[in-house]
Specification:
about 350 residues, alpha/beta, five-stranded mixed β-sheet, three-stranded antiparallel β-sheet, 12 strands, about 40% helix, about 15% strand, globular
Length: about 350
């Protein structure tokens, strides 16, 4: 979820923590046969937002052979936030990718996107947040008034901000937003060109390494507790025509997620192997922070479950805040037949 001068962007990349725009690694070979002896089905997968540690589980699923075992040859590409991921998948340039579920509800409920469905939860609670650093005189949401924030135009953090502002007592008209690219956001914060950025709470280790300053985080979950975090989506076309394929891919990806959370250091090294600009320690730290968001007391024991009642509460919260132009039901955005069962 986050423009810079070329110099600053290059500096951010040089720190090896900015998101890199790589596709599959050179070691990514197209296999001729899967575990069942048949040809592997080619799939294009988008990360949620570049190639931070929080998205390393896809690389883990590929590196550990989980995708291959399920019959897939997966090309992993860096996403650019919720809106962009939806557009790319519904446009047919990718098959799967995680989006912030609340962002997806906003896109669907305001007529900005259609023809996609969520098939699994990645995080049971939203990780959306405004992240700044010490020295910016920001300690509470109200302190954001008069400040300049940066994010990508399609980021859920940015698009959900008016609702967050209303619930947190912020005068939204007093907050200035500027555009940034995913790979440049933390560099913008570090250079001092903005006071804060849209980020996920797990971005703290990366922000600290790049900016050399202690992060200050304002989580959206403090005022919006029922919201899910990221959810895996696909197009309604794929969900309808290839339901078993969706189930197999989802299971392989979630297997990678569970492995990454159980072995964060190894996951960080796997990400580094595929994305040279990644820093393993920061990636592992992100995964450790993310673990608490992937499982929750009301999600059952299985990773990836989605609850219709909670989704309905999220929709009601957004409707109550005046953030949705259209009425929605959980079934319009979630395919519960394809989602993992609690």
């Amino acid at each position: 979820m986050r423009r810079l001068t070329r110099t600053v962007a290059a500096a951010a990349l040089a720190t090896a923590l900015a998101l890199v725009g790589g596709c599959s690694s050179d070691s990514d070979k197209s296999e001729s046969s899967g575990g069942t002896g048949g040809a592997l089905e080619k799939v294009t997968y988008l990360t949620s937002f570049g190639n931070f540690g929080r998205d390393s589980y896809a690389w883990v699923a590929k590196d550990k052979g989980f995708f291959k075992e399920a019959g897939f040859d997966v090309d992993i590409k860096p996403g650019q936030g919720t809106g962009s991921v939806i557009q790319t998948i519904t446009g047919g340039q990718a098959d799967f990718g995680p989006i912030d579920l609340t962002g997806g509800i906003l896109q669907l409920g305001n007529g900005q996107a259609k023809d996609f469905v969520a098939v699994a939860a990645i995080q049971q609670r939203t990780m959306a947040a405004i992240v700044t650093v010490e020295g910016k005189n920001i300690a509470t949401p109200k302190d954001l008034e008069g400040k300049k924030l940066a994010d990508t135009p399609t980021s859920v953090v940015r698009n959900l901000f008016p609702t967050y502002a209303r619930l947190a007592g912020i005068d939204n008209s007093k907050v200035t937003w500027v555009n940034g690219e995913a790979q440049g956001l933390i560099g913008m914060l570090g250079s001092g060109s903005v006071d804060g950025i849209g980020q996920f709470v797990v971005g703290q280790p990366t922000v600290e390494v790049v900016t050399k300053k202690k992060p200050v985080v304002l989580p959206y979950s403090n005022v919006m507790q029922d919201l899910y975090g990221n959810a895996l989506i696909t197009s309604t076309k794929i969900a309808k025509e290839k339901p078993e394929m969706v189930k197999k891919f989802t299971a392989a990806l979630l297997k990678g997620l569970e492995y990454a959370l159980e072995h964060p250091d190894e996951a960080g090294e796997i990400l580094k192997k595929n994305v040279p600009a990644a820093v393993p320690a920061a990636s592992a730290a992100e995964l450790r922070l993310m673990a608490a968001y992937v499982r929750s007391s009301n999600s059952g024991t299985a990773i990836g479950t989605l609850d219709s009642g909670r989704v309905a509460k999220s929709i009601a919260l957004l409707q109550g805040a005046g953030a949705l132009k259209q009425n929605l039901t959980p079934d319009q955005i979630i395919n519960f037949d394809l989602a993992p069962k609690a």
